[in-house]
Amino acid sequence: MMIQSVVVFSFLFVAAYASVQDFCVADLSLPDTPSGFPCKDAKKLSVADFVYSGLGAAGNTTNLIKAAVTPAFTAQFPGVNGLGISIARLDLAVGGVIPFHTHPGGSELLVVIQGTICAGFISSANTVYFKTLNKGDIMLFPQGLLHFQINSGKGPALAFVSFSSPSPGLQITDFALFANNLPTELVVATTFLDAATVKKLKGVLGGSG
């Protein structure tokens, strides 16, 4: 009886193990869903679906914020679909800044590769956590909380940021307030800024209204 039970258990274990789905490489030709993209046919996959070479070159930092984020999210790297992970490259020129922003879909882990970066976040209790980070330092930014990164050194800075989601999302506070057509009077009422300042910021960031 004991031997029979072991044999039955072994068959059940093998059957359960065989039913595990190892991965779900995104089929970007199909619509996205709340649980991720549908899977590509496993028979059509190759090692190329699990390799991405887009983070080797520096991003273009000749812009307003003097910074560039090069993502390897599902849209760029379909292999991370459904795995709860992704990564991006962060380049900061001298004086570069990633303004206050949030990732509603995932937490972030930053590791400094080159230069000096001042980074921080604000908790939901409005407690501020910030620190100057050097090469090899790592900092965590919990999901959904406002956070920032600034190049606080005298040369270019490079970091890699990983996320607990293949599509963490992004909302930059300044752009959300001043880079759209939200009427100035509403921005004034909700931020306590004066109308002249709001219009100036809209002009800088391309907003209207």
TrEMBL record:
<feature type="binding site">
    <location>
        <position position="103"/>
    </location>
    <ligand>
        <name>oxalate</name>
    </ligand>
</feature>
<keyword id="KW-0052">Apoplast</keyword>
<keyword id="KW-0479">Metal-binding</keyword>
<dbReference type="GO" id="GO:0048046">
    <property type="term" value="C:apoplast"/>
</dbReference>
<feature type="signal peptide">
    <location>
        <begin position="1"/>
        <end position="18"/>
    </location>
</feature>
<dbReference type="InterPro" id="IPR001929">
    <property type="entry name" value="Germin"/>
</dbReference>
<feature type="binding site">
    <location>
        <position position="147"/>
    </location>
    <ligand>
        <name>Mn(2+)</name>
    </ligand>
</feature>
<dbReference type="InterPro" id="IPR011051">
    <property type="entry name" value="RmlC_Cupin_sf"/>
</dbReference>
<dbReference type="InterPro" id="IPR006045">
    <property type="entry name" value="Cupin_1"/>
</dbReference>
<dbReference type="GO" id="GO:0030145">
    <property type="term" value="F:manganese ion binding"/>
</dbReference>
<comment type="similarity">
    <text>Belongs to the germin family.</text>
</comment>
<keyword id="KW-0464">Manganese</keyword>
<keyword id="KW-0964">Secreted</keyword>
<feature type="binding site">
    <location>
        <position position="101"/>
    </location>
    <ligand>
        <name>Mn(2+)</name>
    </ligand>
</feature>
<feature type="disulfide bond">
    <location>
        <begin position="24"/>
        <end position="39"/>
    </location>
</feature>
<keyword id="KW-1015">Disulfide bond</keyword>
<feature type="binding site">
    <location>
        <position position="108"/>
    </location>
    <ligand>
        <name>oxalate</name>
    </ligand>
</feature>
<dbReference type="InterPro" id="IPR014710">
    <property type="entry name" value="RmlC-like_jellyroll"/>
</dbReference>
<feature type="domain" description="Cupin type-1">
    <location>
        <begin position="53"/>
        <end position="199"/>
    </location>
</feature>
<dbReference type="InterPro" id="IPR019780">
    <property type="entry name" value="Germin_Mn-BS"/>
</dbReference>
<keyword id="KW-0732">Signal</keyword>
<protein>
    <recommendedName>
        <fullName>Germin-like protein</fullName>
    </recommendedName>
</protein>
<dbReference type="Pfam" id="PF00190">
    <property type="entry name" value="Cupin_1"/>
</dbReference>
<feature type="binding site">
    <location>
        <position position="103"/>
    </location>
    <ligand>
        <name>Mn(2+)</name>
    </ligand>
</feature>
<feature type="binding site">
    <location>
        <position position="108"/>
    </location>
    <ligand>
        <name>Mn(2+)</name>
    </ligand>
</feature>
